[in-house]
Design goal:
Layout: H1 3-21, H2 30-52, E1 67-68, E2 71-72, H3 73-95
Antiparallel strand pairs: 1-2
Length: 118
């Protein structure tokens, strides 16, 4: 499987999980796109440094050849999928009450929002 095919598959899987499986629907919210724009800026800076200095190299037969800030365009697809999947899972787990579990000797953190909760 080429880098291009893997990147496209990653985006499709992340979108399916966000919209259909986890139903967090982050990509339908403006805040997602604002947040992603910030991540994208730093991804482009990092890609430019790593690929521009040839620290990271790509097999030309595995990519489309389209480059943005020296890096293959496929890197942007992978970055999108990675961030979307991570945040979708974070939101999904948060809605189910998955939270920090204190270790022995620590005071439990208070979470929640209701009467009697700070």
């Amino acid at each position: 499987m080429t880098y291009t095919a893997s990147a496209l598959l990653g985006v499709l899987v992340a979108l399916a999980l966000d919209l259909l499986v986890l139903r967090t629907r982050l990509v339908l919210r403006r805040i997602w796109w604002v947040s992603y724009a910030i991540v994208l800026f730093f991804q482009l800076v990092t890609n430019a440094i790593l690929t521009g200095r040839r620290i990271v190299r790509y097999d030309p037969s595995q990519i489309t050849g389209l480059r943005i800030a020296y890096a293959p365009a496929e890197d942007l697809l992978f970055g999108f999928a990675m961030v979307l999947l991570t945040l979708s899972l974070w939101v999904w787990w948060g809605r189910r009450g998955v939270q920090y579990a204190p270790r022995a000797g620590e005071r439990p953190r208070r979470t929640g929002s209701g009467p009697g909760t700070p």
